[in-house]
Design goal:
The complex is a heterodimer of chains A (492) and B (178). By secondary structure, chain A is mostly helical. Helix content of chain A is 75%, strand content 1%. Chain A has one domain (6-490). In chain A, helix 15 runs antiparallel to helix 20 (456-474). Chain B has 7 helices and no strands. The chains are: A mainly alpha (492), B mainly alpha (178). At the A-B interface, helix 5, helix 6, helix 7 and helix 9 of A face helix 4 and helix 6 of B.
Chain lengths: 492, 178
């Protein structure tokens, strides 16, 4: 029996452990203190415990990072994963703050916040996994928490529908992914990424490795909502409680894309060229097709949406296409991809926050419901302006630089056709983002003057996110330098 | 070897097929248990004794019984009249056969698997236990967390909603729909 340093493991997994304990504490506080209080009080009570936990965890990760590896890739804490984890915790913090809004139909706030934290813990484990077994377990843990979060509002049939759709699609794609991972194990004899890479390079263009790749791409393609595995996204984004949808759209995407890139670039990147085709490896062709159809379908379908949440869902599909370009660029694209997903996550959570404000006051999220928003909440309308323009990729906001770096990496890697397609579809996307802004600023006004004021936490969170998006846009080096240094240390 | 394999395969596939196709829910559950028993036999036949017995104990012993209880307690027997196939079953069968064909071709033409019969080490339960407490202790922890989340979710989703519990509509169902 090999001895093992449990204390070291505890050190490495301290942020995850801390957040898990916070989650349990939220449950306890809601049960013991919050019992019998009004729903509003319970939300504030358990929500503040959760938010404090996130804040402490992010601070701890940022100020006192511990680096090291446990058991050959079960848990890898290096500067890069710590950076991603900090951003995941911050995104979760914003999600928690959004849940303070009265739009959140929280019958059981303790359980809701605990599950939000659990989902975050799952994403953090996912980020630091370099062992396919751990990747799968962490992915399942995250997904399971998110399924429950999507179905949380039992009074709304749409939430139930969202939960069931997410669950059914998710479990089938998880089964395919597990099958793919088992095939990788069969071909290479290992589940640790570096050894898998060596094994795949040895195996040459084995058809079994190809099948495995397709199945793994299926599993991750579902998680990041890339076409053709996107069918769940519009219904889930529209039906799930808004904070859940925001976390599914942001944090889950950040972690999944990071691991997807790691598995593909490290694991399959060394695999030799495709059967027959000579130049490009198979994974490049496969992901190239996924990226192209995601960009086209996402952007075109978003044009005709009436519901803003569905619009955000299709825009998410389109963005998944752009992000796939980052993976396609290989190691070159890794840094830009990380920058892109983090800033995208920030802008998306912000956009969902504004939608939740409107939905709480009008009862729906149609475009026309946004009319008059500017007059009642000028500052928040300006925040939405920043989020939408950042998503569209307008300088000097963060979304522009994300797109710029990813596209540049794609051109450098030689995928010129995809770059042109991405540029063209980005232009199309401007139309539907401006559509939202047009309603907010010049829409024929419904009488919005009697709309209730917005809870202070939600306003603060939205302002902080808008500030973050602007800051990271004006000074992209703040984040990008860290990523570059982390990448260099990690050895990409 | 091949005779037992055939019997087990028939048991597993037949059970799974029956679980999908039988009209009464309780019969489906029992057919599922049969399929699980076949899987346990398959594991045992491959010398994976721990997995085999765990399959028998956990799935046939506990999960199948739990499913039967759930069906009995919720009285979910009456939903038999809904069509069992969504869309065209012919297309589904066609796609499934296609996937099976591709997979079979890939497995048969794979060089990595060709010819080499890797001697399978017989994992002792003690070794598995050791590994779960050392190298794979984090995986074990994550599974524990996963089950905690699942438990929370099961309670939340199965419990009557808060307003129904307290009998007062303190939390009015705002119309969240588009």
């Amino acid at each position: 029996m090999s001895s093992i340093d449990y204390l070291r493991l505890l050190q490495l997994a301290a942020p995850e452990t801390f957040l898990t304990l916070t989650g349990l504490m939220v449950l306890a506080v809601d049960l013991i203190v919050g019992r019998g209080s009004a729903p509003g009080t319970r939300i504030i009570l358990s929500g503040s415990v959760a938010a404090t936990g996130c804040l402490l965890a992010a601070g701890g990760l940022f100020l006192l990072p511990v680096y090291g590896t446990f058991a050959a890739g079960m848990l890898v804490a290096d500067p890069l994963t710590v950076l991603i984890k900090v951003s995941l915790v911050i995104l979760t913090l914003f999600t928690v703050l959004l849940a303070f809004s009265d739009a959140a139909p929280l019958a059981d706030p303790g359980e809701y916040f605990a599950l939000l934290l659990f989902a975050c813990v799952g994403m953090m484990f996912l980020t630091s996994a370099e062992d396919l077994l751990m990747v799968f377990l962490a992915l399942e843990f995250t997904s399971l928490s998110l399924y429950i979060l999507a179905a949380f509002n039992k009074q709304s049939p749409h939430s139930t529908e969202a939960g069931i759709k997410y669950f059914l699609f998710g479990s089938i794609s998880a089964a395919f992914m597990l099958f793919g991972l088992s095939l990788v194990y069969g071909v290479t004899g290992s589940v640790q990424l570096p050894e898998v890479a060596a094994g795949l390079a040895r195996a040459g263009n084995d058809p079994l490795a190809l099948v495995a790749l397709v199945m793994i791409a299926m599993g991750f393609g579902f998680k990041v909502a890339a076409v053709p595995f996107h069918l769940w996204a519009p219904d889930v984004y529209q039906g799930a409680p808004i904070p859940s949808a925001a976390l599914i759209a942001s944090g889950s995407k950040v972690a999944s894309f990071f691991v997807f890139a790691k598995v593909v670039v490290i694991g399959f990147g060394g695999a030799p060229a495709a059967v027959g085709s000579g130049a490009a490896p198979v994974w490049v062709i496969l992901l190239g097709i996924m990226a192209a159809v995601s960009m086209i379908l996402g952007n075109l379908a978003a044009l005709v949406q009436v519901s803003v949440r569905r619009l955000l869902a299709f825009s998410a599909i389109a963005h998944a296409g752009y992000m796939l370009l980052g993976i396609l660029a290989g190691t070159e694209g890794f840094g830009p991809l990380v920058y892109y997903v983090i800033t995208y996550g920030l802008a998306t959570v912000g956009a969902f926050g504004v939608v939740s404000i409107v939905q709480a006051r009008t009862g729906s999220d149609r475009l026309c419901d946004f009319a008059g928003f500017h007059r009642r909440f000028p500052v928040l309308a300006f925040c939405m302006l920043i989020f939408m323009l950042s998503l569209a990729g307008i300088p000097p906001l963060a979304g522009f630089f994300g797109k710029f770096y990813v596209f540049a990496a794609a051109v450098k890697a030689g995928s010129l056709a995809l770059f042109i397609l991405a540029l063209a579809t980005s232009t199309v996307s401007l139309f539907y983002y401006l559509q939202v802004l047009k309603q907010i600023y010049v829409g024929e006004t419904a009488d919005a003057s009697h709309w209730e004021p917005v809870p202070i936490t939600v306003s603060v969170a939205l302002l902080a996110m808008a500030f973050g998006v602007t800051l990271l846009g004006c000074f992209p080096d703040l984040l990008l330098n860290r990523i570059t240094i982390a990448l260099r240390i990690t050895g990409f | 070897m091949s005779v037992t394999l055939c019997i087990l395969a028939i048991l597993i596939l037949g059970g799974a097929g029956a679980a999908m196709a039988l009209p009464r829910l309780i019969h489906c559950a029992l057919a599922l248990a049969l399929s699980m028993a076949g899987l346990a036999g398959l594991y045992l036949q491959m010398n994976a004794q721990f997995v085999g017995f765990a399959q028998a104990l956990v799935y046939i012993g506990a999960v199948a019984i739990l499913i039967v209880f759930a069906i009995l307690l919720t009285g979910g027997e009456g939903t038999a009249e809904v069509g069992r196939f969504y869309g065209s079953w012919r297309m589904g069968v066609g796609i499934a056969l296609g996937v099976l064909g591709v997979l079979g071709l890939a497995v048969l033409s794979s060089r990595a698997l060709a010819g080499q019969a890797v001697p399978v080490p017989e994992a002792q339960v003690r070794e598995i236990g050791d590994l779960l407490m050392t190298d794979y202790v984090l995986a074990l922890e994550v599974i524990g967390l996963l089950l905690t989340a699942a438990l929370l979710g099961a309670v939340i989703l199965a419990m009557p909603s808060a307003s129904a519990r307290t009998g007062s509509a303190t939390h009015p169902a705002k119309d969240q729909d588009a």
